[in-house]
Design brief:
six-stranded mixed sheet, 10 strands, alpha+beta, Ribosomal Protein S5, domain 2, 301 residues, globular, Alpha-Beta Plaits
């Protein structure tokens, strides 16, 4: 019996673009986007408990008591019910949080997905991926993306995903100290909701420069730090010897407040970066071609 799973990875994502093409009668927005996995990751540890209890220990940044990690564990435990001996087991979860909150990077959803995948293995439930996706969708719209584990063209209200291949790249990701509430942005009267529908072939011609983020202008009005982060990217200097990475053109990911820009040439010389504004987080990230936990759940036949 597996008694523990350590160093389970939960990667963040970036929205390469995010268009709102309409709104359904029920109020949900119809979107088009590309979700891309990056190597800014949280790390989770799972230790089996035999008393049926679910507990969580924050190894760094403190999380809300009833966060998506705990909710995912409870949902999986409830789904398994009493159908197997493993289902009555509990778990102690240690969380090393690195992905910032309210960033538009999907950190909470990614943690929930990795929790479902890890506990499906730890509790020896052997649930198929489709079952985990159904559980994940009830937790949050982005959770299924992390469960499927591939970069994707996303449509509908976020439930329609087509896996796509992306070139390797490095990205400067900057998170202001303040965040923004997703629901507040989507309810804003100035939000653009009629961007023309795009096609994958058009995106493929310029994957890292295609489109825009319809949420960005509204978010900038709510969070001045987004504008400050974009200005920092515009003044960015990477390798001063080769005159590379000067004046990066950034855009916001998701509903923000994090922004990002693709590096040009050798992006490894972080020592030459200009001073990061106080309270901001800035990291050089690489994209991932697949989630580290791909294959942890059995695909449906």
């Amino acid at each position: 019996m597996i008694k523990a799973l350590y160093d389970v990875i939960a990667p963040a994502k970036l929205n390469l673009f995010l268009h709102i093409t309409g709104r359904r009668p029920d109020g949900y927005h119809i979107i088009q986007s590309v979700f891309m996995l990056i190597d800014w990751c949280d790390t989770l540890h799972f230790e089996l408990r035999s008393d049926g209890q679910i507990s969580r220990e924050d190894l760094g940044t403190a999380l809300p008591k009833d966060d998506l990690i705990v909710r995912a564990a409870r949902a999986l435990q409830a789904t398994a019910g009493g159908s197997s001996d493993a289902a009555v087991n509990g778990v102690h979860i240690g969380v090393q949080k690195h992905i910032p909150a309210e960033a538009g990077m999907g950190g909470g959803s990614s943690d929930a997905a990795s929790t479902l995948l890890a506990l499906n293995r730890l509790w020896q439930l052997d649930l198929p991926l489709s079952k985990l996706v159904n559980i994940g969708l009830a937790l949050g719209a982005d959770v299924p993306f992390f469960l499927y584990g591939h970069n994707a063209w996303v449509e509908g209200v976020g439930e329609k995903m087509t896996p796509i291949a992306l070139p390797d790249g490095q990205f400067v990701v900057v998170k202001p100290p303040d965040g923004v509430q997703t629901a507040t942005i989507f309810q804003h009267p100035d939000l653009k909701r009629d961007t023309p529908t795009a096609i994958i072939s058009g995106f493929a011609e310029n994957p890292f420069g295609f489109g825009h983020n319809d949420l960005q202008s509204v978010a900038q009005g709510m969070c001045p730090g987004i504008t400050q982060a974009l200005a920092w990217l515009a003044d960015f200097e990477g390798d001063s010897n080769q005159a590379l990475n000067r004046g990066l053109k950034g855009r916001m990911t998701g509903s923000g407040s994090a922004v990002f820009a693709k590096m040009v040439g050798n992006g490894a010389l972080q020592a030459n970066w200009p001073n990061v504004p106080e309270g901001f987080q800035a990291r050089l990230c690489s994209n991932l071609q697949a989630h580290p936990l791909v294959g942890w759940a059995v695909a449906d036949m």
